[in-house]
Amino acid sequence: RPNRIVVGVKSEWANGMLYAAHKGVFDLAATEDREVPLVVTDFATAELVKVAANAFLATKISFINAMAEVCEVAGGDVTQLARAIGYDPRIGNRFLQAGVGFGGGCLPKDIRAFQARAQELGAGEALRFLHEVDLINQRRRSKVLQLAAELLDRRSGPAGPDLSGTRIAVLGAAFKPNSDDVRDAPSLAVAAALAKAGADVRVYDPQGMENARSAQPALNYESSMADAVSGAELVCVLTEWAEFRNADPHVLGELVAAKRVIDGRNCLDAALWARAGWAYRGMGRPAPTP
After folding, report:
1. Contact, 235 vs 256, CB < 8 A?
2. What is this structure's pTM?
3. Residue 267 appears among annotated catalytic residues
4. Residue 76: inside a domain, yes or no?
5. Torsion from C-alpha of 169, 173, 175, 177, nearest 10 degrees
6. For the chain, how long is the longest CA-to-CA vector?
7. Mean per-residue pLDDT pooled into runs of 10, the chain (290 residues)
8. Based on the structure, what is the number of domains in the chain?
9. Of 68, 58, 64, which is closest to residue 144 (Cα–Cα)?
10. Among the options 71, 106, 236, 267, which is catalytic?
11. Which end of the chain is more exposed for a tag (fewer CB within 10 A), N or C?
């Protein structure tokens, strides 16, 4: 069920062969009363479509995360800001979810490769902004460490916070829900950084555990959310799985050593968790009144 088909061709013969190969897609679309846009273009444009689309999505995500940075110092709420600007049809509300940033095997790789190739072609200045997009994305991971130090009342030195002697549950290893893909996953990068800062980190993910163990074998992994949060002084929700979004804060509150939570995806009901007695911190959001 593609939202578009893009083909690069050099001849009418090639165009006819490609259309014949995809005829079943168009026939199925017709029976479902939907249209599959077909873009027939040259090789260079067809190749650029993929990286241009991913660069645009990465830019949109990093834009809202940059707004989260501003909200954090101005006292604003990035979730309400995103909702407001998302009503603008020129902007739209998709990919305006502030959090720990994007990951996976496409967006990070594509924007870096796109910059490098543009530089080779002599158009590096045109994509200079993608470097900042990448930097914003990386900074959101560091923000989790900063929030962890604040919630745990730990000081940060030149080398970062010292979290020695603390136990932290990280909920999420895959870069997005409903996937076992941990390539360049912000959640797993944050978990590793927390461990490097001295914390005893316990990781749980519904599908990504095997791949996470291969990528970060030094971390501790638990077989359930309950096991991960048991005895934790801080819970970090870093992948927006439905299991985490719908978790009962009262039930989890009976398992942890201290009710502190970082909502790295702004996917939790902040007021609900605050009413349950949790010290809640979201990305780009003010702390709710208990």
Report:
1. yes
2. 0.91
3. no
4. no
5. -90
6. 68
7. 86 88 75 80 95 96 98 96 97 96 96 97 97 97 96 85 96 97 98 97 98 97 98 98 98 98 97 96 86
8. 1
9. 68
10. 106
11. N
